[in-house]
Amino acid sequence: MAQKFIVIFNDLSSYQKYKKDVVAEGGTIVNDYGTIALGFAAEIPDTVLQLMRASGLSGGGILSLEADSVVTIQ
Description:
This is Inhibitor I9 domain-containing protein. It comes from Paxillus rubicundulus Ve08.2h10. The chain is of the alpha+beta class. The protein has a single domain (3-62), classed as Peptidase S8 propeptide/proteinase inhibitor I9 (Alpha-Beta Plaits, 2-Layer Sandwich). It is 38% helix and 34% strand. The protein has three helices and four strands; from the N terminus they run E-H-E-H-E-H-E. The chain has helices at 12-24, 34-37, 46-56, and strands spanning 3-9, 28-33, 39-44, 62-67. The protein is globular and about 40 Å long. The model has no long low-confidence stretch (mean pLDDT 91).
């Protein structure tokens, strides 16, 4: 089951690789921030999410990986 996450990357090659992986595994890029923020919001399949968590956060090119949610003030 795909979950919605916002992902920001350290470098262009990681951004391109994981974007391709998300789509190849049946996920959906919801918002692409392009090279301005080097990231995207996406519905990420569990297989890719596990890979991101295992390799991406331990020096694998991911700066931030957090669940996408609604934020309110009041």
